[in-house]
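note to self: dont lose this again. the chain is below, predicted strucutre after it. 362 aa total, dont forget to put it in the shared folder this time
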Amino acid sequence: MRKQGLIGLVWAMSSLAFATDELSWLKGQIRQHSKDAPTLVQSYADASASYTYDQALAAITFTSAGEIETAKKLLAGLARLQDSEGSWAFAYSLDGSLREGRKPLGAMAWATLAFVRYQQQTKDARFQATWHKGLEFLEAMLVPLPDNPMARGIRFAPSDAPNTNWDETQTAALEHAVDAMAAFNAAHKLDGNPRWKTHAEALKHFVLHLWDEDRKHFWSGLNLVTGKINRSEFYLDNQSWTLLALEKSDEQKFKAAMRAACALQVRGEKGIGFKERRSPASKADFVWSEGTAGAALALEALAQDCDHASTKDYLSQLETMTEAGGVRYADRPGIEDFSYSPSVAGTAWTWFLRRRLNPFKT
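---
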């Protein structure tokens, strides 16, 4: 018993050291191209880009860690990039110029959530107009479902992208709905505006509309015009993020969804992780750091496991993917769309898991 206690203490101290290194690495990714440029986080160690989602994740991480000045600088940079209608582009170059102009709504919801979280924790209202404008943009993208009057989906994007074979203005993704629901719920908790709660509830009905009672998992989205559910894509985050955003409102359903997600568990170098089924990456059994940390958080929230794997097992694997404090996005090179480089998303989500911190609910 004494030996077990000593082992536990050593592991806890080691984990604390990794958490410190993760925060240091994230801080080391912060860039200001010139004194007049916005302060941005470099999303990957080997790529000169700042993705809006990653900027939001980093701000939430530093806010949660009590690194308020750092969070404030990142949020000020993000506020400068918000356009007049209240939206953000998907990615920017490190000088603040546009890198990817498409506007998926999920990234915008995370940006808005980051501002609300900052105000909740600090009581500093300097960014209130920014997140309010962001919520109003999300609000304008809500669409009623043709066959479910209680539900509202959120458009994948405000305009269609020419390089996809589906219309992004007529598509609603579960993941984006979960993101927007979290932002509206957080805003309602902050200012009590019933309008935000109404939208969060409508998005919750949309998410539950995508539940498949036969297969016991959530599907990825649907067509807003026809109401047809996309039953060809099963994604990890659709299961884990739904649980984290809704927590234990329907525990048996969430347990079933995470049991389905266990099919995506793979053996890594020194532990266990999760891969993604999104094509073309689905062809390889690789460990995806962001998805692994999110799934581990969800499993722990349910006191559930996949094949007896523990949070320590997942963290052990994520620690093998660490380079100078940053966590690689994938555990091996050559996975299309999944970088082998240390990443903000992989590092931030690993830090969330280490602290048992749910970013949807902080």
